[in-house]
Amino acid sequence: MSGAEPQVRRLVALVPVMAAAALYAWAHWCYGGTSAPSGTVALAGGAVLVVGASAAYFAMVRGSGSLFGALFLALGLLLTVTAADQAASRGEVALCVVRDVQAKVQGSAGEGAPAEKTVYRHVLDCPGGYPDELGDDRRIADTGAEVRVAYDARHRASPALEGENSPWTAGSWALALLATSTLLAAAGRGPDA
Question: d(Cα 86, Cα 46) in Å, to the nearest integer?
Fold first, then answer.
């Protein structure tokens, strides 16, 4: 083992942290920024960051942990984007009154098809007129009830009940996968000299 190998191993272990920070910043700007790029540029930039970080990790980490570490890194980075989206996409909250609840049964045909599903459309009366409806696979409130609805003022994401679209689940899984990837890089053999 050369004297430089532990330093290289520590630098390689930072790849997941640096990639996650860069990707979260990119996604946060793309989803929440007022001067966000087009959808094509946002997707291409995110793909370059995910693929580039995973490929760099795979090339720098040697041994059996390189493939699994790169996969965990890629999955962790995708969940980082999901957390950024969920954090930024529904930044406004309105207290709305449910004017009407409409239930629609969606049938399925054929052998082995999924069971019928009931979808509920809650017609809302919100300050400013938006959001005007909330769809869910369950009845969330009766007519006349008040509900707190999180929504995106730029209408990029459908409204949801406040607190139901939290970034914490995706963020927790992202942290677990990125930590595993970091541990695999730290435990693995660094680049050959």
Answer: 16
Q: Per the confidence metrics, is the pTM higher than 0.90?
A: no
**What count of Cα atoms within 13 Å lies in the side-chain half-sphere of residue 105?**
5
User: Following CA atoms 43, 72, 190, 18 in sequence, which dihedral angle do they give, to the nearest 10 degrees?
Assistant: 50
Contact yes or no for 124/133 (Cβ under 8 A): yes
Burial class, 28, CB count within 10 angstroms (exposed 0-12 / middle 13-18 / buried 19+): middle
Q: Are 81 and 23 in contact (CB under 8 A)?
A: yes
Between helix 65-88 and helix 39-60 the angle, nearest 10°, is 150
Cα distance between residue 49 and residue 73, in whole Å: 11
In sequence order, the β-bridge partners of residue 185 are: none
- Cα distances from 186 to residues 5, 8, 60, 113, in angstroms, run 11, 9, 11, 47
27-73: pLDDT as tens digits: 888 876 667 788 788 889 999 999 999 999 998 887 777 889 999 99
Instruction: Work out the widest C-alpha separation in the chain, in whole angstroms.
Output: 72
Do the Cβ atoms of 100 and 123 come closer than 8 Å? Answer: yes
CA distances for 100 relative to 4, 44, 91, 108, 136, angstroms: 68, 42, 25, 26, 14
